[in-house]
Amino acid sequence: MNPRISKLSMLGGLALGGLISAGLSQAQETTSLTMYYPVAVGGALTEVVDGLVADFEEAHPDIDVEAIYAGNYDDTRVRAMSAIEAGDTPQLSVLFSIDIYELLEQDAIVAFDDIVESGEEREWLDSFYPGLMENGRVDGKTYGIPFQRSTIVFYWNKEAFEAAGLDPEQPPETWEEMVEMGAAIREASGGDQWGVMVPSTGYPYWMFQAFAFQNGHKLMSDDGTEVYFDDPAAIEALEYWVSLADEHDAMPDGTVEWGTLRQNFIEQSTAMMWHSTGNLTAVKNEAGFDFGVAMLPKKTQRGSPTGGGNFYIFKDTSEQEQRAAMTFIRWMTAPERAAAWSMETGYMGVSPAAYETEALQQYIESFPPAAVARDQLEHSTAELATYQGGRVRRALDNAVQAALTGQMSAEEALKQAQAEAEAALRRYAR
Question: Domains plus CATH for the chain?
């Protein structure tokens, strides 16, 4: 054999072997993602999320996802921001959709528009319900992708309605009807059962926003720089909420605990409740009585703020990590997964395509309450989101609770909340 040919063959073989080795090394390289996730919500979500992560990793062996369950939404935001400050930035998280302004102020998140590369990915950004995207977009850019999303819905005990001489298939359509039905149930039970409970701890501002919107009023500007807490329509809404206990004896005095309300309903301490649709599957599995789910009653219009969590991708991460995070988020929000998530938890399928899947269509046919939160999107408004969101919401929470506990009138409390919010937002005025 020609020595020169032999040498070339040997070099070619080494080169080919090196390419194969590099290819194997690259194929085996794993992108590791850390995701902070809130768990203080309805349902046993950790098992569901763990299962989804495992399925994703099986389908994407080059991406490893570690889910860190970090408490409620506020706890999760604090832990994620603390990790960023410590130089241990997670790649993604599910945080409150209303955290968007604070995250932008901290320069902590990236716009999905700056990560997408293909027309298909851009179509994905536009595939979600517009009502859910109101808390995910700022100045025309998408920073939050809806996942664990909800509206407030109305649950009622059909057996309690029947016992009080009410039509068990007809929930209240209006505020006036809810008062009348609540009082009738309280009286028929001999004082053993409350007519209605609306939670006023945890997220008082959220429930109050529903009352205000049903009275034709929006609490904030679209750009997160102004609030309108002391408008007459808002004051009237809070006065109505207070009157449920003070005037009509349909609801207990003082505050109603968010965390125990679902159990109160299941134990039949109350015949009606306002709560997140995220509790739907848990109520379905635990209630020992026939119950219904409906849109919230109205004053001048129907309405509920949207709620829940969005996916965010953090800025201080590599391009490869951001691409891997988006791959995971796209997989999690695909119609089949969104449908399965809705059935497992009660949260909404976040896109019209999710409700077009055969699985979710069959589920809704067998359990119609699963469609209520989606249908209520037609009457929804964006959840209260502003700059300095924590301070602004805290001012409103305190006002709601002060009125419900009799410490202040609704008007006094909301005027004080307005002053505090204006002080917090003064430097953002446009």
Answer: 30-150+307-381 (3.40.190.10), 151-306+383-428 (3.40.190.10)
